[in-house]
Design brief:
Elements: H1 3-10, E1 13-14, E2 24-25, H2 37-79, H3 88-110, H4 112-138
Antiparallel strand pairs: 1-2
Helix pairs in contact: 2-3, 2-4, 3-4
Region (Disordered): 15-34
Coiled coil: 115-142
Keywords: Coiled coil
């Protein structure tokens, strides 16, 4: 295919096969295929399902975070105890371990950072589902075989 022929085709023209200098109008362009609703509907179901699943995961994550936040809240009071303790070194070791578990869980598993990441994933899925539902609603009705 020559560049000249391609350049004319882009402009909607066809060179005259008999060599005339005036190109002829090209035939009408091919129609674009219709949108197949099935993969869109399948993806919509996927997005809705996973957004709902992640919402449940978010609720569990928030409950877990409340538990660890409560641990961090009581640690100072437990350390401030001035009364007798059977093994002060062992108790301090235990309090340090409880504190570190809570800090680690909040930082990596269920605290504000991980919660925001999960919220972003949910928001993305919900927005995708919204656009897919809108697209499906705008598609023309498919003819039914009667």
């Amino acid at each position: 295919m020559s560049r000249a022929r391609l350049a004319l085709a882009v402009q909607g023209l066809v060179p005259d096969p008999e060599g005339a200098t005036v190109p002829q109008p090209a035939p009408p362009p091919l129609l674009t295929p219709p949108v197949d609703a099935r993969p869109l509907a399948q993806r919509l179901r996927y997005c809705r399902h996973h957004a709902l699943r992640l919402r449940r995961e978010q609720e569990a994550m928030q409950a877990k975070a409340r538990h660890y936040e409560l641990r961090l809240k009581v640690i100072p009071a437990l350390r401030a105890w001035a009364g007798p303790v059977a093994n002060p070194a062992q108790e301090e070791k235990w309090l340090t371990q409880v504190e570190q578990e809570a800090r680690n869980a909040l930082q990596h598993d269920c605290g504000l950072g991980p919660q925001r990441v999960l919220e972003a994933r949910i928001a993305g899925l919900e927005r995708e589902a919204e656009l897919l539902a809108q697209t499906l609603a705008e598609l023309p009705e498919e003819p039914t075989d009667a």
